[in-house]
Specification:
Oligomer: single chain
Largest sheet: 3 strands, antiparallel
Structural class: alpha+beta
Number of helices: 4
Radius of gyration: 21 Å
Order of helices and strands: HHHEEEHEE
Strand content: 5-15%
Length: 143
């Protein structure tokens, strides 16, 4: 019986459409007060991972999609400290980015300003043996 369903093209198409509809409903739910509260708990527990940059000091990241349109890109993670987008540490996830949308981290951080109290983005200063090497004659890091 299950084998017949998996061979049925209409069933497969219906299942795909239902999954996409669920994902789009999810993108709306996570911006509701109840959804934001659930994701705040996940953010505090670092369920989405941490920023791979050393200067971010293991900052928790938030899920983000590059586009709100389906099948444009996979979900990625956004670091509120360095304000960069990364592919999750375990590699690309099999979740459409539209299920989170490009606006979710910003709505989250506006709703929970206390969730991120970190210092603003830290710029890297190149040094050799403790001496700054930028703004020196002949340095390629001259600004």
């Amino acid at each position: 019986n299950i084998d017949q369903l998996l061979e049925d093209k209409n069933f497969i198409e219906l299942n795909k459409c239902a999954s996409e509809l669920y994902g789009l409903i999810h993108s709306r739910y996570i911006t509701s007060p109840a959804g934001l509260q659930q994701l705040q708990e996940k953010f505090a527990a670092k369920d989405f991972g941490i920023c791979p940059r050393v200067l971010c000091n293991s900052q928790a990241v938030l899920p983000i999609g590059i586009s709100h349109e389906l099948r444009k890109s996979r979900a990625k993670v956004y670091c509120p400290k360095c304000q960069e987008i990364f592919i999750p540490k375990g590699g690309p996830v099999n979740v459409d980015g539209a299920y989170f949308g490009p606006y979710f981290p910003h709505i989250f951080l506006k709703s929970f300003p206390q969730a991120f109290l970190g210092a603003p983005k830290m710029d890297y200063t190149p040094r050799v043996f403790g001496f700054k090497i930028y703004k020196k004659k002949g340095s390629k890091y001259r600004k």
